[in-house]
Amino acid sequence: MSLFLNQEDGYYSLTTTGIVIFVAIIILLVALTAFLKSKGNADETPKNTKTFSTKQLVFSAAAIALGFATSYIKIVPMPWGGSITLCSMLFVTLIGYCYGPKIGLIAGFAYGLLQFVQDGGSYILSPLQACLDYILAFAALGLSGFFYKKANGLIKGYLFAILIRGLLHTIGGYLYWMDYMPESFPQSLAIIYPIAYNYSYILAEGLITVILLLLPPVKNAMARVKKLATE
């Protein structure tokens, strides 16, 4: 279709050139933001202006990298996007659990951009659909940060975050994906198809993850991770 986009059967997908340019824009925006922030902080005290400490930045980058790597380990891939992965959502929600919603949402947004690039923008029907299915849905994982000071905050935050992620995918499903409902799906239940599709894999992975988090060794390990990340 163009240097940047391909079109086939109603889908838009980024070409290799488009992906390279998209990544380059992200890098430039991050570099520009860092430059402007450092320039603006020259006459200000670090205490009031620093968003990420070095430890927070390193920990967040490592968690995003682990989440991105495990997202490739798809235990059950779904036909129209999404999959049950090796607890990939946990690593992103862990950032919010350690540092709160502000840093959690920033990290989730960055992870959403990586997920978009990972798929090569392979299921783009409109800019809003791409935002709902990639940017906003994965940024929602940072909402776990609202529970970072609560008892059992990791599990509570994780469940809240993945439910909101599922909601955003479901909204996109109602707006854009109803025409792709398989004929084998009961027509009497067609109205709940986006809910059933999206929450089937999100809740399945969520159940596996929560069971693991409830195991005493894992629970103790997560407590040590938070302590190391926040000391």
Describe, in short, the structure shown:
With 231 residues, the protein is mostly helical. It contains 9 helices and 4 strands, in the order E-E-H-H-H-E-E-H-H-H-H-H-H. It has helices at residues 16-40, 46-49, 54-70, 88-99, 101-118, 127-139, 153-177, 193-214, 216-230; strands at residues 5-8, 11-14, 74-77, 83-85.
Low-confidence parts lasting 5 or more residues at pLDDT below 50? 43-49
Terminal residue distance: 52 Å
Biggest beta sheet attributes: 2 strands, antiparallel
Q: Give the amount of beta strand, in percent.
A: 5-15%
- List the secondary-structure elements in sequence, H or E: EEHHHEEHHHHHH
Trace the largest sheet across and list its strands.
Answer: 1-2
Mean pLDDT: 83
Number of distinct beta strands? 4
Q: What's the gyration radius in Å?
A: 19 Å
Helix and strand composition category:
mainly alpha
Helix content: 55-70%
Number of discrete helical segments: 9
Shape, per Cα inertia axes:
globular
Written description of the protein model:
The protein is mainly alpha-helical. The chain contains nine helices and four strands; from the N terminus they run E-E-H-H-H-E-E-H-H-H-H-H-H. The protein has helices at residues 16-40, 46-49, 54-70, 88-99, 101-118, 127-139, 153-177, 193-214, 216-230; strands at residues 5-8, 11-14, 74-77, 83-85. The strands form two sheets. The chain has a two-stranded antiparallel ribbon with strand order 1-2. It has a two-stranded antiparallel sheet with strand order 3-4. Helix 7 (153-177) packs antiparallel against helix 8. The longest helix has 25 residues, at 16-40. It is globular, with a radius of gyration of 19 Å. It starts with a strand and ends with a helix. 32% of the residues are buried.
